[in-house]
Amino acid sequence: xxxxxxxxxxxxxxxxxxxxxxxxxxxxxxxxxxxxxxxxxxxxxxxxxxxxxxxxxxxxxxxxxxxxxxxxxxxxxxxxxxxxxxxxxxxxxxxxxxxxxxxxxxxxxxxxxxxxxxxxxxxxxxxxxxxxxxxxxxxxxxxxxxxxxxxxxxxxxxxxxxxxxxxxxxxxxxxxxxxxxxxxxxxxxxxxxxxxxxxxxxxxxxxxxxxxxxxxxxxxxxxxxxxxxxxxxxxxxxxxxxxxxxxxxxxxxxxxxxxxxxxxxxxxxxxxxxxxxxxxxxxxxxxxxxxxxxxxxxxxxxxxxxxxxxxxxxxxxxxxxxxxxxxxxxxxxxxxxxxxxxxxxxxxxxxxxxxxxxxxxxxxxxxxxxxxxxxxxxxxxxxxxxxxxxxxxxxxxxxxxxxxxxxxxxxxxxxxxxxxxxxxxxxxxxxxxxxxxxxxxxxxxxxxxxxxxxxxxxxxxxxxxxxxxxxxxxxxxxxxxxxxxxxxxxxxxxxxxxxxxxxxxxxxxxxxxxxxxxxxxxxxxxxxxx
Length: 530
Known about the structure:
Layout (H helix, E strand, L loop, with lengths): L10 H13 L3 H21 L10 H26 L5 H14 L6 H20 L1 E2 L2 E2 L3 H16 L17 H14 L3 H21 L4 H9 L4 H9 L9 H20 L16 H16 L5 E12 L2 E8 L10 E5 L11 E5 L9 E6 L6 H8 L5 E8 L11 E6 L4 H7 L9 E6 L9 H7 L3 E5 L10 E5 L5 H7 L7 E6 L1 H12 L4 E6 L4
Parallel strand pairs: 9-10, 9-13, 10-11, 11-12, 13-14
Antiparallel strand pairs: 1-2, 3-4, 3-8, 4-7, 5-6, 5-8
């Protein structure tokens, strides 16, 4: 599907280009690069006596970084080998980098041993604190909680400290920018803001109640505390979040309260107690929120057996799976597939695809574009033999149709039609007033043409050139791509409809602003790839 090239200024252009740029990299690569840049910058500051002055040296910090990452990678590989699981190396690198920022740099061999032990515990938690192949809580947080509990009861004295030293004045700006990139890429900006603002706000209240000035309390909460880093790089991890946005925001509130409790408990308790585990407030917030998210979600990975594949149109393919147990999903949500394979490229081993099968179907199907050249993941997925087993690691997304009887406008560009296909084929969907505007590059090669025609929903097909024929209830608009003006001309009662837009980031960005001025409501879903 062609996308607009005339949108060169304004917020829509900026967000569209940002989505497109970030979408070229898998989420793991984005996080790895950002954490790596933060680590390099931190080492530079330490080496020039602008960070952790008197606490460590650049050599000790660098050695701690190497030990944390190496221990995480090697222990994960060692645990995965006897289990017959292909280790996800980049995930382990991220775990090691996170631990580097959570733990104060080791000053001696004993400290390095404790750092390595924490990394090993974090790796082990991915397999031990897991259900059906899906870890329940953030591994780095779990590793710290496990090792610090052991250290408290059996190893009194020095050895390890969870300083969260990433939270300091010298790092606050780069950390905030990096966290914003992660939250934008994962579409979790609201979640990050809820946690950071609520958690930090509660800390401010507690500090002021204990006698701090408002200025000092604000500095402590937003600069010297890790709320921003935690929100961007740890709480936002998709595998430890529930599937729906409202649930995610609820989990963010829970995490914020646990995170801030040691500070703001003084508002409710005249003589607040101080427990040893209060030093683990950030890690416990992540562990508890992850446990609640697991309870709210799919509760583990789902084993899938590939039952068939077919070319739908052009470079669009559909894969069908028989799940070992029912997959709980709402029409419009996505399924994240894991396909470990050799020669993994920068796109990684997990990708999210919209579910195209209707709710309640015995099999679950997804559709994907396979352009030339394509990623190693998609090549491996298409080469998978029928009958092979794969794992769905997550189900989620909020791109679901609203309840009620408000008329709907669905706007799809190319592969963006997939969530609508599930919605329109699910029971009761066609009982309401729905119009689909569908942009494709070739009017005679339309993905899911027959399936859409069977729903009886009116379709406005946008494509360059005239089609040979059209199903009943369809009409054609000769244009290279969908625009807001085109939609307004094609749908006379646009102002009465709630608009749902799905497609490439540039198309979504171009339509978002234009439709908000015309439609009753606008929801979007950009296919940037996860």
